Amino acid sequence: xxxxxxAGIGCLLAGCLxxxxxxxxxxxxxxxxxxxxxxxxxxxxxxxxxxxxxxEVVGSLAPRLESRVKSEYAGIVTDVYVxxxxxxxxxxxxxxxxxxxxxxxxxxxxxxxxxxxxxVLQAEVGANRADREAERARNLKESGLITQQNFDDAQTEKxxxxxxxxxxxxxxxxxxxEMNQIRTRLAKAVIRAPLDGVVAQxxxxxxxxxxxxxxxxxxxRIVDNRLLDLTFTV
Length: 234
Known about the structure:
The chain is an alpha+beta fold. The chain has helices spanning about 1-20, 100-145, 150-190, and strands spanning about 60-65, 65-70, 75-80, 85-90, 95, 190, 195-200, 210, 220-225, 230-234. Strands 2-9-7-4 form a 4-stranded antiparallel sheet, with no helix packed on it. Helix 2 (about 100-145) runs antiparallel to helix 3 (about 150-190).
């Protein structure tokens, strides 16, 4: 019984050895390994993300709309309110010229307008008096109390008074036009943006003389960056 038990264990060990040797196909009969050698790899965690594809291009952007701002009148710049690459709105002040001389001229024009208005009032008062005298002369003429000469003189004075009123009103109109012209010039002494956009160029500083006759110098270049033309090559 003991011999049978020992024989069974021996058969079991022999079967295991044969099975293990036959289960390793990568070893050749001569004991050397066969197949590719092991390769080192790096493991990373899989994540989802957006894939962005693009190409590199070389090109230039040109604005469809731009304005080269100059001064209509010659003057010395006293203030500059903006610099390059800032956004501006239409009508926004960009710079200001010296207006001291124009201010003095405006005061004289305003005084001339007031004097012309006073002349109009005085002429109208004289015209009203001449109308009353002409009407009184007509009544007296009908009653035979004055001569034809006196009546004619009253009518002539009436017409002359009306002419003085017309002349005074014409002088007032001319004075008002001159005053408005000076005010317009003063308003244009403040350089304003002609459109919404970006200051692409500033070529003016405080103390510069601008607007001189024959000058091609610009003060600002405003571009509308919302509308662009794109020219490029791949």
